[in-house]
Automatic annotation (TrEMBL):
Gene Ontology biological-process entries: Mo-molybdopterin cofactor biosynthetic process
Family annotation (Pfam families): NTP_transf_3 (PF12804)
Name under which the protein is recorded: Probable molybdenum cofactor guanylyltransferase
Gene from which this protein is expressed: mobA
Taxonomy, superkingdom: Bacteria
Length: 200
């Protein structure tokens, strides 16, 4: 077990999807349930940040509320850094159905000696599948106090390990690994990707 906290972000309004994304199925399980299962395998503690408290009860996980509500994922990270039993957390969005426990463990190793470890590939960063240390809290609080809610807005002010994923996996895998579902079209695409993965 990694002595760290896995945090599944499940707040927000799912406006683009029109229905709570956490419960949508890609494969046999709802996305939140699937990630919870992966994280329980490796993290000493798993929390759900935001969303329906009933969900957490059903999965046997604690649901924590945002301390600042309705302002997006950075507030989920903020609340999780407050509430986690451990100094380091791995944050994942509940709408990323293809992330794995193995990748989470890899990212936790990358945050040693840093405040943040974030996957990077090409021009992209994946701050919604990244490791954060409690040392980020004061800087995040300053951002929130200044009404700056962009998730990676505080990165220039802390020690960030930008982890080049092209060294870790192939280009195609990267696109699948970090695929996130925002719209009904994305959901359809993800289900096709999942079918392909099974038949491959
Ligand atoms: N704790 C917490 N999580 C959030 C919040 N807003 C979004 N999230 C989560 O952050 C992840 C990324 O969210 P998005 O896909 O950008 O947005 P969303 O709010 O779910 O959907 P839209 O309303 O369509 O933008 C998802 O796992 C959401 O559940 C928030 O205010 N608090
Ligand atoms: Mg999203």
């Amino acid at each position: 077990m990694i002595q760290a906290t896995g945090v599944i972000l499940a707040g927000g309004k799912s406006v683009r999807m029109g229905t709570d994304k956490a419960f949508l199925k890609v494969g046999p399980q709802g996305m939140l349930e699937h990630i919870a299962g992966e994280f329980k395998k490796v993290f000493a503690e798993v929390l759900i940040s935001g969303g329906d408290p009933e969900t957490g009860r059903n999965l046997g996980l604690r649901v924590i509320n945002d301390l600042i509500e309705g302002k997006g994922p950075l507030c989920g990270v903020h609340a999780a850094l407050h509430e986690a039993q451990h100094d380091k957390i791995l944050v994942v969005a509940c709408d990323m159905p293809f992330v794995t426990a193995k990748l989470a463990c890899f990212m936790m190793r990358q945050v040693e000696g840093y405040d943040v470890a974030v996957p990077s590939h090409g021009i992209y960063l994946q701050p919604l599948f990244a490791a954060y240390s409690r040392s980020c809290l004061p800087v995040i609080e300053e951002s929130l106090a200044a009404n700056k809610y962009k998730i990676d807005g505080f990165f220039p002010r802390v020690r960030v390990n930008y982890v080049n994923m092209e060294n870790y996996c192939s280009h195609i895998d990267i696109e699948t690994l970090f695929f996130n579902i925002n719209t009904p079209v994305d959901l359809h695409k993800a289900r096709e990707m999942a079918d392909k993965k099974i038949t491959n």
